[in-house]
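Section 3.1: Structural characterization of target chains.
Under the original work plan, the team committed to producing a structural model for every single-chain target entering the pipeline before any wet-lab resources were allocated. The record below documents one such target. The sequence was received from the expression subgroup and is listed exactly as submitted; it comprises 235 residues.
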Amino acid sequence: MHVSSYGLSDIGRVRERNEDAYLIDERQSVFAVADGLGGLPEGARASQLTVELLEKELGRGRVLLNMKTLFGKMNLEILLLGKSLSPDTGIGTTMTTVALGEESLDIAHVGDTAVYRFRSDGFEKLTRDHTLEEEIRNRPDYNPLVPIPRRHSHVLTRCLGQIEDLEIDTYAYQPASGDRLLLCTDGITLAITAEEIHPRMLAAATPESIVRELVDLANERGGRDNATAVAVFID
């Protein structure tokens, strides 16, 4: 299996600072995207810290990597930093990781940074957003005829750094040659639909070309948020 990748993070056209962060480790085939919570202080420090902790763990060898344990460590580190920087509100960040093996595609995830898989016959979102909107949609009494306020799509129900006992989602998939993965923050997904991304992803010659195209398009459509994307091609 040959893996190629590219990542890019852009401040956008509205925000005063970039609070996204990402990591690419092609040697160990581990990729990550984090998005600091804009509604809380020091979002950039929160997202960067998660990436630094992951990078440090990877430096010890991927054989030691246990994502649920690592996410627990990240959560406590950010919780402690938040108590120091902002005792009243704390700080927070999303975090999504992908670890690729010859026969495994493992994801650990909290928040609304997403992973999509694109194939010639369609696409699939491999993560579930931890937002108030998504929680409402998954309730047994959900009525699709009742509109959900748009603001609920931005309200996170889970993130790193806010509570000690945090639930982390993990997923395991089977990778295949020809798979094209996209890890991205909501600066991408709020501006561009997966349906629009699909043909662009399949037509892209390289991971760099599609990442730059998506970031540019998000900015052309207003750049309302930081836009970060990591594309991974499996051949």
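The chain has a mean pLDDT of 91.
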